[in-house]
Structure formats: structure tokens, C-alpha cells
Amino acid sequence: MERLHKENEMLRVSLQMMSNKCRILQETAVAVAADSGSSEDSNKRAKNEFAQTKMSRILTRTDPRDFSLVVTDGYQWRKYGQKVTKDNPSPRAYFKCSMFPSCPVKKKVQRCVEDKSILVATYEGEHNHEVQAPSGFTDFQDCTFMASTTNSHSFSPNGLNLPKPNTALGLALPHVYEGTSRRPCHDSMDTYRIEEHVASLTRDPNFTAALSVAVARSIVTLPDHSTDQM
DNA sequence: CGGTTTTGACCGGCGC
DNA sequence: GCGCCGGTCAAAACCG
Question: What angle do CA A110, A29, A170 make, to 5 degrees?
């Protein structure tokens, strides 16, 4: 019984967080537009990178007072370098996936020039393993939204091999598109569509309902030892 | 003690 | 060829 109360509370908190994220997503779509126009050179480079390897980007809004370069996404990362780049005074951190020694995935994390409260995480490659089950459901909550190069406008839930519990959330949350091999990063029309899309979603009571279902399902799919005892 | 982070050095690609 | 710049290495420090 107590567990049920806990789960209800968890569901309520999760829903609250999801709706917050929708707001964040809307805010950040604007930030992306501002950021993408900041450097032509980096755009060119980014375009080449996107064309050559499977890359994706996650934008995370953090506390402006928090200067750490940590983007929680369910994977374990080992930092192997940090560098201050020319076009951004904020240092860029380099991470490798440390869950599997053979996993080729790399991650670069840097603060947005325009809005230092936004962390831009660029993922390179694909994980060749499953993500470890998070110690708590909220461990994934910091992973706000993502841009998959393989499926820029769809609601593909697995752009980064996210685990099953997140799949439902992936279906509910749109991905922020930032760039593909065919299209430039500073596609204002895309940003506009994202904003429009998110705005409509946040106003849509059906979306909220869908979120409830998605969150509920994601909790159900988590291993629940309570069933052993009940 | 093992894993992670920090940080200066090094390397390779690219533009001039 | 040279210099700049981004990315990586590796040793030392740090931490649980």
C-alpha cells in the first residue's frame, strides 16, 4: 500500500517534470536558432561531421549557476579531455562511453554561447550495448530532448538506443532537430516548426493524457520487486 | 586500490 | 612549409 502511494507520487512528479520539459523544449528551440547562427565556420564543420558519422545532439537546460559539464543520459561516461575552442569561451569536454571498453561512442559537451544555462551534448557513433537500467526512474529525467540525425522529424524513440522504459517517453516527446547530412544546422524553418509543434503539444490536453499513459507504462516496464512480495 | 578527472603535451588536418 | 585549431593521449592527482 505504501509502495502504491510512492508510485503515485512518482507518477505525479514525473508528469510535472515532463510538462516542465515541454516548456524547456520550447525555450531551447529559440536558443538553438540563436546558437546556430553564431559561427559560420563551426556550422560548416558541423555539417561535415554530421555527413560523415552518425551524430546527434542533445540540448539540456541546466541551472545557470551550475557550471559542470554533466549531461545525464543513462550511460556512463569517462572524461578524457577538455579544451577551450575558438568560437566559444566555455570549455568543451570530451567523453568516452565507459560502460563497455569496446563501445565506440564519444560525446562532446559544451555550453551554448548565447545561453550558458544550455548544455549542448554532441554524440558520435552508436552504442554497441544496451544502456544499464537506471538506479532510479528519475535518472533519465535530465535527458531533456535530442536531435537524431537518422530521423530528424519523426518521433523515433531510439535515436540513441535508449532503453525500453524511455521508449514511451520518446514517442511523446518530439526531438529537437538541429542538423543532418543534407540540411544545414541553421534551418530556421525547422526551428519554427519545432516551436510551433511544441507549443501546440503543450496546449493539447490529449498530449498531457498521452504523457500520463507513457509515464505510467514506463514505470510498469521497470523491474518491480514489489510484485514478488505482494 | 581501482576508476575517474584534470591538464599539459602531442598529433593530424586544414587554410594560407 | 608553417601556424592554427580541434581532438586525443597519458601521467599525476583525486576520490570513494
Answer: 90
